[in-house]
Write a structure and sequence with these properties.
By secondary structure, the chain is α+β, with helices and mostly antiparallel strands. It has one domain (about 30-250). Helix content is about 20%, strand content about 40%. Strands 3, 4, 5, 6, 8, 9, 10, 11 and 14 form a nine-stranded mixed beta sheet that branches.
Length: about 250
């Protein structure tokens, strides 16, 4: 038998092995990810009635409100699937505005499977203490200058919620608008992690539908004493309202 090396036979064997390995990889490769447009809808309610700016609305006990501003900062938006994979939309921080339902969060890459959204009500402590409105170039960013302002000072950071309304502030509901409420809520340490929220995928769009019922927050108020909060002068009231608001944000 000849002991000479046969290069042609060697190349043939390597080719067969390479082909087999490639076929094995094909059988276990993951499905391709797809790019979707991510949309978030957010609707305010008072009990079962949709809350719109300047619309006269009342609690179940007859106390009336007419809201001018209902605003929240939602940030650190991320999607997570059942395997633990994460993806962040191109827009991960938004300002919820009164009367505005739909928010486009840009493109997002999703692999097949079920996805959930997690987000932060408010602003994380690092961002809240290091980013000032003058530092934000994108005018659509909620941390950019706003009117009315969503910023305290460089020491205190951002408001997470601003709510202002004409209201019935009587000790017992009078059925009349006779005062006002203003709740400017937020400081480092008062942000709240929220989720998971269901993500639906239809055709080229992924969307999340959220609702916030403000009735638990407003029925927790001791009238007329707690008609106003600017957070720092009454931290217990601010925390009570923030917990009620954040706790009422859920899938619609």
């Amino acid at each position: 038998m000849s002991n000479h090396f046969r290069p042609n036979f060697f190349i043939f064997v390597v080719s067969i092995l390479f082909y087999c390995c490639n076929k094995a990889e094909d059988t276990i490769s993951k499905p391709d990810s797809v790019v979707k447009n991510l949309e978030l809808s957010f609707i305010h309610f008072l009990d079962t009635s949709e809350l719109l700016p300047d619309k006269l609305i009342e609690l179940s006990d007859g106390r009336k409100f007419q809201f001018r501003y209902i605003r929240h900062i939602l940030s650190n938006i991320v999607l997570v699937n059942e395997k633990g994979d994460t993806t962040v939309p191109s827009i991960s921080r938004i300002l919820i505005l009164e009367g505005e339902r739909t928010y486009m969060l840009g493109k997002i890459t999703l692999s097949p499977g079920k996805w959930k959204m997690y987000l932060l009500y408010g602003v994380d402590s690092v961002t809240n203490t290091t980013v000032q409105p003058s530092m934000v170039e994108d005018a659509n960013d909620p941390l950019a200058p706003q009117f009315p302002s969503m910023y305290w000072t460089w020491e205190s950071g951002y408001l997470f919620t601003k709510m202002e309304a004409l209201a019935d502030t009587s000790r017992t509901p009078s059925g009349q608008i006779n005062g006002f409420v203003d709740y400017h809520l937020g400081k480092t340490g008062l942000s709240r992690q929220l989720g998971p929220f269901e993500v639906a995928v239809v055709d080229q769009k992924a969307f999340v539908r959220l609702r916030c019922n403000l009735e638990p927050a407003l029925t927790s108020v001791v009238w007329p004493d707690e008609f106003s909060s600017h957070t720092f002068e009454n931290l217990l009231l601010a925390e009570k309202l923030i917990n009620a608001i954040a706790g009422s944000i859920q899938n619609d």
